[in-house]
Design goal:
Blueprint: H1 22-40, E1 46-47, H2 56-64, E2 68-69, E3 74-75, H3 84-94, E4 101-102, H4 110-123, E5 140-142, E6 148-150
Parallel strand pairs: 1-2, 3-4
Antiparallel strand pairs: 5-6
């Protein structure tokens, strides 16, 4: 059995979730997690909304079902066709401890550049950890942008 805690849900159909009802948001999250469970044998509690869209409806739907919402803090813009060097130039200027870096599968240069990006991040003295290690477990709330903030 694979460990689904290393995976997160990203919705079933990749809609603009800010335009969906509370019920439709739950449906998107749960259908995605059903598929994850079918493949891995377990469910995840991590959810990142498509397009980085968060509002109170999205957050409430996720948290009411026991999910931790995840928001990225640094975008590689890999989906625009940037090369690995161009992605690194973006990261190098802005990277701080605790950043969650957004990349996409299926983009032109991301897979080929990932080893270089990870090596450069480590050379700057940063540890690369599962996103679950960055989640506040107690004394926090989710603001309307999907970011976790201390109470």
């Amino acid at each position: 059995m694979m460990q689904a805690k290393k995976y997160g849900s990203h919705s079933d159909t990749h809609p603009h979730v800010n335009n969906l009802s509370y019920e439709k948001n739950i449906e998107e999250i749960e259908k995605s997690n059903d598929k994850i469970e079918k493949i891995t044998g377990s469910r995840t509690k991590l959810y990142r909304a498509p397009y980085g869209e968060y509002n109170n409806t999205v957050i409430n739907a996720a948290t009411d079902k026991g999910y931790y919402t995840i928001q990225w803090s640094l975008d590689t813009l890999d989906y625009t066709g940037l090369t690995g060097d161009e992605m690194w130039n973006r990261l190098d200027k802005k990277l701080v401890a605790g950043d969650i870096i957004l990349t996409h599968n299926g983009t032109k240069h991301t897979a080929d550049s990932l080893d270089m990006l990870l090596k450069n991040i480590k050379q700057k003295g940063f540890d690369i950890v599962p996103v679950s290690d960055l989640i506040y477990k107690e004394n926090y709330k989710i603001d309307s942008t999907g970011m976790q903030v201390n109470n």
